[in-house]
Amino acid sequence: MVFQSTIKRKKMTIYKILVGFAFFCFLQTHAQTNRHVATTGSDVTGTGTLANPFKTIQKAADIVQPGDTVFVHQGTYRNADFNDGDIWGGDNLVKITANGNADNYITFMPFPGDHVLLESDSNYNILLKNASYIQIIGFEAKGNGDMITQAEADAAWGLYKDSNGTVHDLAIELGIDINDPALRGTTLAKPPTPNIKKPSYYNGRGIVASQSHHIIIKNNIVHDMTGSAIRADKSDYVTITNNEVYHNTYWTSAGVGAITVAEATVTPSNDTFTGVKIKLLKNNVHHNENRLISWAPSKTIIKMVIDEGTGLFLTRNQDTYTQGKILIANNISSFNGASGIVCHKTDRAIIEHNTCYKNGTTNDSAAGGIGVNNADNVIIRNNISYAEPDHWALGKLGGTLTNITISNNILYNENGTQAIHKNMPNGWTEENPLLTNPENGDFTLSQNSPAIDAGNSTSTIIDDIVGNLRNDGLPDIGAYEFISVLNVEEVQNRDIKMYPNPTTGKIFLSGAFENLNKIKIYDQTGRIVLTKIITKNTNLISLNLSHVSSGLYYLKTDCCVQPVIKK
Question: Which of 2.60.40.3080, 1.20.1440.60, 3.50.50.60, 2.40.110.10 would CATH assign to domain 488-566?
Answer without folding.
Answer: 2.60.40.3080
